Amino acid sequence: MQNNFKALTLSYKHAPINVREAVALNEIGCRNLLDKIREFTDAQDVLVLSTCNRTEVYYISEKELDQAIIKLIAMERGFISTKKITPYFKHITDPELAVQHLFYVGLGLESQVVGDMQILNQVKKAYQWSAEANMAGPFLHRLLHTIFATNKQVFNETSFFDGAASVSYATVELVEELIADLVNPRVLMIGVGEIGANVCDNFQKSTINNVVIANRTHHKAQALAEKTNATAVYWENVWEEIAQADVVISSVPGDCFFISKEVIAQQGVTTPKFFLDLSMPRSIDSTLEEIAGVKVYNVDTIKNRASEALEMRMAAIPQVQQIISAAMVEFSTWTREMAMSPALQQFKSKLEEIRQQELNRYMKNLGEAEREVVEKLTQNILNKIVKLPALELKAACMRGESEALVEGLAALFSLEKDKV
């Protein structure tokens, strides 16, 4: 494993939302931070990942740069003091644990919703920004592609990504099932609290693109609509919107707003109409189902869907961890092979130097045809000599014993230790 790979992480597990908001970076912020890290530190193979639940920086450096990076994050976010945010950052200096953490984050083991597939897309974007900033070296390239391949294996071989494991995901999944046969269905979201906002966020990952948002405070509906590519309407028009919608989702408490059977019956229902009640107390009359063509689903139904999916995902975690462990072993072997590569190159260069010295001594007395034969013969001998220790070093890498062999090679052939 690369001895200097580190991770600096702040996440929902240890930091409240106001702290996460204080350090959260959009794309421009992530790109700017990459530039600042390159300018003010010696860090290499840098990855900056920032989502609503975490802000993390992965890097390679002989020195610990965590405090410097926290200051650069503060500079990018426009505040000077780091006292309020520093205690929430966690430092992972063990390279194997840092690699494992990135595996777990990328595959959704560290997500609030276990198995969240959206995080991998965010990791891919972060990787793209690192590559475009010339901050991704061979180590990071190999590590990220190993994670992507591992994610594909987990997807194909386990049930870890199956089902919708949160209420908001499960709501969108249920809506997709209900309107599968409808053309351009209209979905009305009433209320923009936390759950309403999450549902609208998740509709962005859906094929449903006709979402309308209604809220008593219009500017909140407008802000969420702009963020989620939806349409905001004024609260005064909510009953008209209910009449037009194919699906009505309510997250407004029933003691503030209530959709009764009498009102919906007066509106008249001519096509299938679905009501999803995410509020507590309930804001949709369960007796609506007595109206022909109307179906009502409450929060318990949706939570049960999410709970079943979450249980299935949790059961798959040991299998996922096993797949990750195997991938990490393979990646660790590659890093050790990379570490021994300079020693092998020096060894080959040393032998080539000896070969050239001896050729220069005797070749002047040979004809052109003889020169070609001797050149080819000695080159083949050199390649075969190098091949034996190369194979042995590769086998030693698999066993985790390459360092002793590299040191022995350096001592035998007077190789430069600082380059080995």
TrEMBL record:
<dbReference type="GO" id="GO:0008883">
    <property type="term" value="F:glutamyl-tRNA reductase activity"/>
</dbReference>
<dbReference type="Pfam" id="PF01488">
    <property type="entry name" value="Shikimate_DH"/>
</dbReference>
<feature type="domain" description="Tetrapyrrole biosynthesis glutamyl-tRNA reductase dimerisation">
    <location>
        <begin position="319"/>
        <end position="415"/>
    </location>
</feature>
<dbReference type="GO" id="GO:0019353">
    <property type="term" value="P:protoporphyrinogen IX biosynthetic process from glutamate"/>
</dbReference>
<feature type="site" description="Important for activity">
    <location>
        <position position="101"/>
    </location>
</feature>
<keyword id="KW-0521">NADP</keyword>
<dbReference type="InterPro" id="IPR036453">
    <property type="entry name" value="GluRdtase_dimer_dom_sf"/>
</dbReference>
<feature type="binding site">
    <location>
        <position position="122"/>
    </location>
    <ligand>
        <name>substrate</name>
    </ligand>
</feature>
<comment type="subunit">
    <text>Homodimer.</text>
</comment>
<keyword id="KW-0627">Porphyrin biosynthesis</keyword>
<feature type="binding site">
    <location>
        <begin position="116"/>
        <end position="118"/>
    </location>
    <ligand>
        <name>substrate</name>
    </ligand>
</feature>
<keyword id="KW-0560">Oxidoreductase</keyword>
<feature type="domain" description="Glutamyl-tRNA reductase N-terminal">
    <location>
        <begin position="9"/>
        <end position="158"/>
    </location>
</feature>
<comment type="function">
    <text>Catalyzes the NADPH-dependent reduction of glutamyl-tRNA(Glu) to glutamate 1-semialdehyde (GSA).</text>
</comment>
<feature type="binding site">
    <location>
        <position position="111"/>
    </location>
    <ligand>
        <name>substrate</name>
    </ligand>
</feature>
<dbReference type="InterPro" id="IPR015896">
    <property type="entry name" value="4pyrrol_synth_GluRdtase_dimer"/>
</dbReference>
<dbReference type="GO" id="GO:0050661">
    <property type="term" value="F:NADP binding"/>
</dbReference>
<dbReference type="InterPro" id="IPR006151">
    <property type="entry name" value="Shikm_DH/Glu-tRNA_Rdtase"/>
</dbReference>
<dbReference type="InterPro" id="IPR036291">
    <property type="entry name" value="NAD(P)-bd_dom_sf"/>
</dbReference>
<dbReference type="InterPro" id="IPR000343">
    <property type="entry name" value="4pyrrol_synth_GluRdtase"/>
</dbReference>
<feature type="active site" description="Nucleophile">
    <location>
        <position position="52"/>
    </location>
</feature>
<feature type="domain" description="Quinate/shikimate 5-dehydrogenase/glutamyl-tRNA reductase">
    <location>
        <begin position="173"/>
        <end position="303"/>
    </location>
</feature>
<feature type="binding site">
    <location>
        <begin position="51"/>
        <end position="54"/>
    </location>
    <ligand>
        <name>substrate</name>
    </ligand>
</feature>
<comment type="pathway">
    <text>Porphyrin-containing compound metabolism; protoporphyrin-IX biosynthesis; 5-aminolevulinate from L-glutamyl-tRNA(Glu): step 1/2.</text>
</comment>
<keyword id="KW-0175">Coiled coil</keyword>
<dbReference type="InterPro" id="IPR015895">
    <property type="entry name" value="4pyrrol_synth_GluRdtase_N"/>
</dbReference>
<feature type="binding site">
    <location>
        <begin position="191"/>
        <end position="196"/>
    </location>
    <ligand>
        <name>NADP(+)</name>
    </ligand>
</feature>
<feature type="coiled-coil region">
    <location>
        <begin position="352"/>
        <end position="379"/>
    </location>
</feature>
<comment type="similarity">
    <text>Belongs to the glutamyl-tRNA reductase family.</text>
</comment>
<dbReference type="InterPro" id="IPR036343">
    <property type="entry name" value="GluRdtase_N_sf"/>
</dbReference>
<dbReference type="Pfam" id="PF00745">
    <property type="entry name" value="GlutR_dimer"/>
</dbReference>
<protein>
    <recommendedName>
        <fullName>Glutamyl-tRNA reductase</fullName>
        <ecNumber>1.2.1.70</ecNumber>
    </recommendedName>
</protein>
<dbReference type="Pfam" id="PF05201">
    <property type="entry name" value="GlutR_N"/>
</dbReference>
